[in-house]
């Protein structure tokens, strides 16, 4: 069982930066791939970024590539999403999720555990 708690969301102006954190409980965190997803009002939840259990493979949605960076610290049971050059269209609730497969995937149903989400609002 893995419990995930996101933090770091907030209100930021376009062009600004935020760093989201996702703290995980459970000793098996280091064996899970981790992902970030987001859901904007009236839209389906979509993939943002994923990282393998060792951190050696990272995947990004085309919409955030070059602006967002996913990383993890297995000693701290935490995964991060550094977001830069934020745009109003990045406004959404951001969720972290844990994938027991370990390699990282864009596919939502591969993730067994989900956090409650943190709101990110980018003003123009």
Can you walk through the features of this model?
With 124 residues, the protein is mainly beta. It has strands at residues 3-7, 10-13, 18-25, 33-39, 46-51, 58-60, 68-73, 78-83, 92-99, 113-114, 118-123. A hairpin with a 6-residue loop joins strand 4 (33-39) and strand 5 (46-51). The radius of gyration is 13 Å and the shape is globular.
Layout of strands and helices, then pairs:
Blueprint: E1 3-7, E2 10-13, E3 18-25, E4 33-39, E5 46-51, E6 58-60, E7 68-73, E8 78-83, E9 92-99, E10 113-114, E11 118-123
Parallel strand pairs: 2-11
Antiparallel strand pairs: 1-3, 3-8, 4-5, 4-9, 5-6, 7-8, 9-10, 9-11
- Succession of helices and strands: EEEEEEEEEEE
Q: Approximately what portion of the residues adopt beta-strand conformation? A: over 45%
E-strand count: 11
Content-based structural category: mainly beta
Largest sheet: 7 strands, mixed
Radius of gyration: 13 Å
User: Whole-Å distance between the termini?
Assistant: 40 Å
What is the residue-averaged pLDDT? 96
- Which bin fits the share of residues in helices? under 10%
Shape: globular
H/I helix tally: 0
Which parts are unreliable, with pLDDT below 50 for 5 consecutive residues or more?
none
């Amino acid at each position: 069982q893995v419990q995930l708690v996101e933090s770091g969301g907030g209100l930021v102006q376009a062009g600004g930066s935020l760093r989201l954190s996702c703290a995980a409980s459970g000793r098996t965190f280091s064996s899970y791939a981790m992902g970030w997803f987001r859901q904007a009002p009236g839209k389906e939840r979509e993939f943002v970024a994923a990282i393998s259990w060792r951190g050696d493979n990272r995947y990004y949605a085309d919409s955030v590539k070059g602006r967002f960076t996913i990383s993890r610290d297995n000693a701290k049971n935490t995964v991060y999403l550094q977001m830069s050059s934020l745009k109003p269209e990045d406004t959404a609730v951001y969720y972290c999720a844990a994938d027991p497969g370990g390699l990282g995937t864009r596919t939502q149903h591969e993730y067994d555990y989900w956090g409650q989400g943190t709101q990110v609002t980018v003003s123009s």
